[in-house]
Amino acid sequence: MDTITIPTAADMHIHLRQGSLMNMVTPYVAEGGVSICYVMPNLQPTVSTTEQALAYKAELEALAPKVTFYMSLYLGPSLTPEEIRKAAKAGVRGVKSYPRGVTTNSESGIESYDIYYPVFKAMEEEGMVLNLHGEIPSDHEKNVCVMNAEEKFLGHLKQIHTDFPKLKIILEHATTEAAVNMVKSLGDTVGCTITVHHLQLVVDDWAGKCHNFCKPVAKFPSDRAALRKVIKEGHPRFFLGTDSAPHPSHKKEGPEACAGVFTTPLVLPYLATILESFDALDQLRGFACDFGRAFYEVKDEKWVGEVKLVRTNKDFNTPETYAFGGEGVDGESGKVVPFMAGKALAWKIASIN
Ligand code: NCD
Ligand code: ZN
Q1: Among 265, 215, 253, 243, residue whose Cα is nearest residue 334
Q2: Rounded to an integer, what distance in angstroms lies between the CA atom of residue 197 and that of residue 274?
Q3: Which of 61, 79, 106, 283 could disulfide-pair with 98, CB 3.0 to 4.6 Å?
Q4: Which of 42, 217, 256 to mutate to test the pocket of ligand 1 (most atoms within 8 A of CB)?
Q5: pLDDT of amino acid 96
Q6: CA–CA gap between residue 203 and residue 170 (Å, rounded)
Q7: Does residue 134 have its Cβ closer than 6 Å to ligand 1?
Q8: Where are the domains of the chain?
């Protein structure tokens, strides 16, 4: 098989940033073969109100008119059940929860879920999605660190699902076998996104290699095997959310050591290459196109194209960098190093119609 034709994909977890970085990244959504994406709210300031979400959406649409942007709000103390109802009416699709301090711009993240139960109730009634960054903060006294932070979070997922069985909940960017097993064990209202990079990386690939560092971190080979297996099975509650999270290279390479892997420009070529490596190319369409749309019950997509992927002779390489800025937008400029920079990919996009 040397060509694959599928609909444009759905990326149900993406960071599109602000300012000059947003200007660079956003047009690449469609180039990577994606026509609908669910946009993360961890900007500065965070996207916490309906107005902010709609204003951000308008900026993104101006940069990528064909793409459908589903927006999210940032869970925090200022979010009320009234705001949830307003947001739902305005088409905001969900709410993202970041535990405090575990990742980029999560300083105002949450410390306890109980106080948000009125918000969750309103979300359940309005059919909104709750997106969970599934890690608890490191606590060395209690032997919690990045390697077990996701597994130790899973009790929260189960509890919220038990208390709100009709609320659609997504465990975002799962990295562990334990997470796969937990999501499988729960009801149909619980979904799970898996990134491109977590299907490829294990802990050895990011320890000391800053461009593969992201939160949650890639874990053991057995965990990666579990992520691969659930995709091979074609489980419909496990779908693509790339968590593409670009940072300027100087911020990843310097003392800030920002977490995040950038995959947006080549989502489908990466995915086809990696799925084929574990004999799951036949699941590309379900995982990347169908299951996410079904879970989000997408009905109002502006445009769905047809993507034709062709096999390369391993003569198609990921760019080393993507430059941004220099347009006087916000004075920021630099370059972003993408996932698998400079490496050959087995598939590339021949056309998108
Ligand atoms: C994300 C970012 O940079 O915004 N980073 C990451 O490593 N995934 C934040 C997040 O989603 O955790
Ligand atoms: Zn993310």
Answers
A1: 253
A2: 9
A3: 106
A4: 42
A5: 98
A6: 24
A7: no
A8: 10-304
The dihedral region occupied by 129, where left means phi > 0, alpha psi between -120 and 50, and beta the remainder, is: beta
Which DSSP helix (H) or strand (E) runs through 180?
Answer: helix 177-185
Smallest CA-to-CA distance from 133 within 115, 156, 162 is with: 156
Residue 308 confidence (pLDDT) above 80: yes
Mean pLDDT of 269-273: 98
- 286-304 pLDDT tens trace: 999 999 999 999 999 999 9
In this structure, the chain runs to a length of: 353
Mutate to test the pocket of ligand 1, among 243, 251, 262 (most ligand atoms within 8 A of CB): 243
| C-alpha span between 338 and 245 (Å, rounded) | 10
Q: Give me the amino acid identity at 66.
A: K
Identify the CATH assignment for 10-304 out of 3.30.420.40, 3.30.530.20, 3.20.20.140, 3.40.50.720.
Answer: 3.20.20.140
Q: Distance (Å, rounded) from C-alpha 180 to C-alpha 98?
A: 20
Amino acid letter for position 214 = C
CA–CA gap between residue 190 and residue 203 (Å, rounded): 27
Report the C-alpha gap between 22 and 19 in whole angstroms.
5
CA distance 124 to 168: 7
Q: Please indicate whether residue 214, judged by its CB atom, sits closer than 6 Å to ligand 1.
A: yes
Residue 173 scores a pLDDT above 70: yes
Q: Output phi, psi for 40, to 5 deg.
A: -75, 150
Per cent of the chain over pLDDT 90 is 92
Burial call 326-352: b when 16+ CB within 10 Å, e when fewer: eeeeeeebbbbbbbbbeeebbbbbeeb
Distance 138 CA to ligand 1 centre (A): 16
Tokens representing 130 are: 């709750």
In a 13 Å sphere around the CA of 334, the CA atoms on its Cβ side amount to 16
Find the 15 Cα to ligand 2 centroid distance in Å. Answer: 6
